[in-house]
Each structure stands twice: as C-alpha cells, then as structure tokens.
Amino acid sequence: MKRIPDPLRQLMLWCSRILNGVARREIEYLREENRALRKALGRRRLVLTDARRRRLAAKAKVLGRGALQRLATIVSPDTLLRWHRELVAAKWTQPARRRPGRPRKPQDICELVLRLARENPGWGLTSIQGRLENLGHSICPTTIRRILNEHGIPPAGERMTTWRQFVRQQSAVLAATDFFTTEVWTMAGLQTLYVLFGIDLQTRAVEILGTTSNPDEGFMAQVARNITGVACGWWARKTMLIMDRDTKFSMAFRAALARSGIQSIVTPARAPNANAHAERFVRSIKDECLRRVVLVGEDSLRRALREYAAYYNRERNHQGIGNELIDPRPGDLDGRGPVERRSRLGGLLNFYRRKAT
User: Fold this and answer.
1) Other Cβ atoms within 10 Å of 149 Cβ, number
2) Per the CB 3.0–4.6 Å rule, which of 129, 176, 329, 355 could disulfide with 278?
3) Is beta strand 189-200 parallel, antiparallel or unpaired with respect to 349-354?
4) Taking a C-beta distance cutoff of 8 angstroms, is the pair 87, 57 a contact?
5) Is the separation of the CB atoms in 54 and 88 below 8 Å?
6) Nearest to 129 by CA among 162, 93, 159, 105
7) Secondary structure of the chain in the HEC alphabet?
C-alpha cells in the first residue's frame, strides 16, 4: 500500500479526534452553559432578531424534536420548530414596498447564493460575490449577507463541513464496510449467518468479504488479510475505511488495517446515516434478493450473494451515480440487435440489453 500523504493523514487524525469523544464533551459543556444562562435569565424574555431566529430554526429542524428535548435549549423545542415553519419552511411573500429602495433579488438568484454558500463552507461574502460575477450576476456583499441571514445560514467562519461533503470530497480514497444477518435453513433448523461486505464510496461497487455463523477474531483477521494482502481492484486506491462501533470490528482488526496503511474511521454511536451507502446496500440486497428466496444451507446463501453482487456491479442501474451502471460488460450498452434478457437466480434478477449485431 502507498504511504498516506501528510495532509491527508492530518485530516484523518482530525476526523478520528472528532469522532472519538471531543464533540461529545463540547456538547456536554454547551448543555451546562445553556442551563446556567437559562437560570440566570429567569422569567425575563429573551429577545432575538429574526436573523438569529432563522439560524436557530434551521439548526433545530435538522436535529428534530427528540434531540431538542434532550438539550438544554434557550427556548422550547415547540418554539424552535414553530420558528422553522414560519421563517424557513414557508415561502417568503413580501408585502408591497412602502418606501423607496432597491427591489428584492429574483428567487433564482437567491437560490444560487444559498447553493454556493452550502456547497462551499469556506466561501465568505466577497468570494460568493466573485463567483456570481463569473456567472453573470452583479450583487453586492450586503445583499448576499441579507439572503444568508434570511435562510439561517451562518457566516463563512461558522459554517462547518458536513459529513456528506467530507465523504464526497474524499470518496476516491474512502471505502465502507458493514455486517448484515440473514436466516438460512439447515438440518438443525434456522441458523443466523453474518455477511460482511465492503463498498467503494466513489463508484458504489460492492464486494462480499465473507460469511460466517461466528464472526470471531479469527474470521476478522482473515478478512483483514484478504483486504490488505493482495491490494487489487478498487481496494488498491483506498486509504480510509468507514465502519460502525460494532464490537466485531475489534482493535486487532483495525490495527491489522493500519499496518497496511488503511485508517479506520469509526462512526458516532447510533448514527446510521454516517454509513448511509452501506446501509442502503443492505436494504437493496434484502428487498431485491434475500427476502424473495428460500435459502437452504450456507452454499445457497453464498450463491445468492455471488449472483446479486455481479448483478449489482454490472447490471443494476444506480440513482446515486446518475442512474447508470457501475461496471457494464463490453457490448452490453452498444448493441443494435433485438432485445434479450439475462437472468439470474431463476429470473429473480433480470438485465435487458440489445444483442450485438
């Protein structure tokens, strides 16, 4: 494996630091600080500007009512969500202007300003103004600030890179892994088998890494050797692997990956969206394949997994990559002859193409 560049190593260390407890300690401190402020405020009413309300409402909507109730917020969760309905979610309708001044910017320009700010957390008012000039729109920084304030978007120094943006930026070197379980009929009755898979976050390609009824240290050690021993295919480009906090991803497993230059990125507790691509694959394989067949023995499971992985990587269209195929076979997309069907698992999985002439 190639040595990880120093800037990327620093970024990985930063991610690990955030995910391993610093963020939780910061949140606990802010909770306690809010409790102290609320106690000092007493029965006095807290006066906030509309811009501050919008920013709080935008953050509150993402958290949801359950998370807000666990936090020591300065106003009630119902008030925050009401602000969101009134100030963010509702479409803006401005009354007739009663005093002279410049008209408001068209909605499409406002949406473009918001898009640039959300997709580029480090861009300030002047940077956004320059990019708008490139696109043929002349707009002053004051107007940009007003648009951002109206929609609850903080200044550049306070906008943080989201997890989705991080995954997109690092997808070339990022992979993810996860387990799912399935029931198989055996001579002794139903048996639960564990399936481990890996997914390339750049192309969405999937590889089944192993199946077992007992994912112990020996099984995980063999998986680590398979991943790092012969780095071929898309695994050769990967230097970071996302996994959840399942105890099966033990310290020994992560250490074996680290010795080969693959850094383990552990997701926060109870945060399935942090490994959303893997979670979506589990839903796909269960809904499209495993729940539609009766599996008798481990061999039948392995055959179903092998057939579905080939279908998923070569014959299934994926909305996440523009509804295209990941790795189509030569000749599958450029035929001019009659339409023919390629079936797997007795017609459960089908692919249609035009026959080459």
Assistant:
1) 17
2) 176
3) unpaired
4) yes
5) yes
6) 105
7) CCCCCHHHHHHHHHHHHHHHHHHHHHHHHHHHHHHHHHHHHCCCCCCCCHHHHHHHHHHHHHHCHHHHHHCCCCCCHHHHHHHHHHHHHCCCCCCCCCCCCCCCCCHHHHHHHHHHHHHCCCCCHHHHHHHHHHCCCCCCHHHHHHHHHHCCCCCHHHCCCCHHHHHHHCHHHEEEEEEEEEEEEECCEEEEEEEEEEEECCCCCEEEEEEECCCCHHHHHHHHHHHHHCCCHHHHHCCEEEECCCCCCCHHHHHHHHHCCCEEEECCCCCHHHHHHHHHHHHHHHHHCHHHCCCECHHHHHHHHHHHHHHHHHCCCEHHHCCECCCCCCCCCCCCCCEEEEEEHHHCEEEEEECCC
State the pTM of this model.
0.67
Q: In what order do the strands lie in the sheet with 174-186?
A: 206-212, 189-200, 174-186, 240-243, 263-266
Check: CB of residue 228 under 8 Å from CB of residue 1: yes
Backbone angles phi, psi at 278, to 5 degrees: -70, -40
* 124 & 189 share domain: no
Structure token pair of residue 114: 């918001």
Is 38 among the domain residues?
A: no
- The count of C-alpha atoms lying within 13 angstroms of the C-alpha of 69, restricted to the half-sphere facing its C-beta, is 4
- 81 with 126, same domain: the answer is no
Residue 236 lies in a domain: yes
What pLDDT, in 10s, does the model give residues 107-155?
Answer: 889 999 999 998 888 899 999 999 999 999 999 999 999 888 888 888 8
Same domain? For 154 and 114 the reply is: yes
Q: What is the C-alpha separation between 231 and 251, in angstroms, rounded?
A: 21
> CA 116 to CA 295: how far, in whole Å?
50
For residues 242 and 176, the answer to whether their CB atoms sit within 8 Å is yes
Q: Does 313 lie in the same domain as 179?
A: yes
**245-293 residue pLDDT tens:** 999 999 999 999 999 889 999 998 888 888 999 999 999 999 999 999 9
Residue 73 is part of which domain span? 45-86
